[in-house]
Amino acid sequence: MITMKLSNKKKMRNTLFITFIILIGLMGKIAYIQLIQGGELSTLAYQQQTLDRSINPKRGTIWDSTGKNALAVSSTVETVTVNPGNISEENKEKVAKKLSELFELDYETTLKKVTKRSSIETIAKKVDKEKTDDLRKWLEENNIKEGINIDEDTKRYYPYNNLASQIIGFCGSDNQGLDGLEAKYDSELKGKQGAIQRHTDAKGGEIGDEGENYVSAVDGNDLVLTIDLTIQSIVEKYLEEACIDNECTDGGNIIVMNPQNGDILAMATYPSYNLNSPFEAYTEDLKGIWDTLQQSDKTKNLQAVWRNRAITDTYEPGSVFKLITASAALEEGLVTDIDKEGQFSCTGGIEVAGVRIKCWRYYRPHGAESLRLALMNSCNPVFIGLGQQLGVTKYYEYLEKFKLLQRTGIDLPGEAGSIFLAKEKAGPVELATISFGQRFEITPIQLVTAVSAIANGGTSVQPRVVKQIINSETKEVTDIPIKTNGTVISKETSEKVLSMMESVVSEGTGKNAKVTGYRIGGKTGTSEDGVNTNKYVTSFLGVAPIDNPQVVVLITLYNPTGEGGHQGGGVAAPVGGQIFSEILPYLEVQQGNQDEIEQVEQVETPDIIGKSISEAEKILKEVGLELVIQNENEEIDKDSSIIETQTPQAGIVINTGNKVYVEY
Q: Which residue among the candidates 65, 100, 319, 460 is catalytic per the annotation?
């Protein structure tokens, strides 16, 4: 009996001890949860009990240089989501059916979302308000007040479709910038997301009486570009014409830069693509085979057209580079009188370190020349000789001064650097080829920037495409500063080189770029596109007006295979003349020789937007201009087809005989 009592007491003691240990453990666990994990668990509880729906901000507008033409805008659309737990069982199928019909979705997929055990499911993004209004009406008619959310959203839209596509770039479905300025300035443009917060239970049902908490989105900031819509339109028009007429198999690009401040007024690459549909086929040939291509081939084609070749691709500049050699020789005093007859002599070639390098006109040598004549004739031996006199060390010093050994720093993504042989490895032959523009590679933007230093009196200016940022809330304007990189050459040297460039256009290889009434300078170039490829790059670089340069234009055409050949003077220079003939009057650049001006009649471009094509043709013909339809097809009815756009715009003064390009 006593033994049994002792045994019970022992059991009771053990039970109490175990209970005590368990209580201590539970208290320790509670203390750990409360003190250590309290903050984290509180956050998780809030997240579970709070249903947040994002409100996307409006992405900032991208304006052209005038601040009047929007190149990229965000339009208001809406996003539809559902809270499955708030939709009654009897309505689930009906809701799924209506949503799938209205937004053209798969019914079974939509039904799964509507019946899913989750707090929120996205049904359709970036829907036009017309459709969501239909949904609102249907919900009201069917007395469905909970479980379906319609929230304001934004969609990126590009009013001018292909215009400046490689500069502007595009956005993804989440409004994040993926290319071009959209990517480079994404932090400025994207703004800050807002939210709608609602307290819910685990199934998404509402709890409490707090209702919704609305946190406003902050719209993105606007950008004002240096790109001028009118100049960009003119440049793209003539670039497309040049690439098609000259059968440029690898396309082309054109840059127009203000040498005084580095502003890029236009930058075009052909072919271009539609910014509103950047993932679709962009040529008629591709459209015909697009569905048969593998995804890797589609991606390769798209990445090729998205690339801004004016800044991402390097090439041999050819004879245009003789401007750099001439500038260095003048600055170093190797030549003092650019018109000294017989200072140089072309015998058809020159021997360098046992290698004979021919002049392009070796079969009929240029003979005695001044430096001006040598540049007009684009005579290789003269510039090889100047390079030899400068020497490798001094020549590379000028490459450095002209910023040709580094990137320009332009505010666009993907800029490439130049490809030069290291100074220590450059021998006599390498120096000779560099002196006339071959066996090294630079980007078009590097060349335009270097020649801009010649055009503006000797100062290196960094190119830019954004000049202002406008705060979306305060409307405060922040100016992007003009950046200079020191003096490259003297004003005297600049004036001498510009004078020679004017002679190249008036009498030399660039005469096809002449525009009556304006003083234009330039230099042509032709080079091989790689070694033994039988492909060529043809180019023309122009400066105007010579007495006070306001624009530098570089035309680069890749592998022209048409009947016009591949020489810069015959293929690229005429394009320069066409561009100058329109942009100089537009910029109100003062004309030069008044005797020449009087020989050319000028007219103000009429406003033909809203007119039928027949009416417009008659109006233009009366003032001596020609109408060209850019989107013409075989079924066009000229009496009923109404013009929507014209280039040049109304009010621009141009020479009679010019063309006005329209779309209907």
A: 319
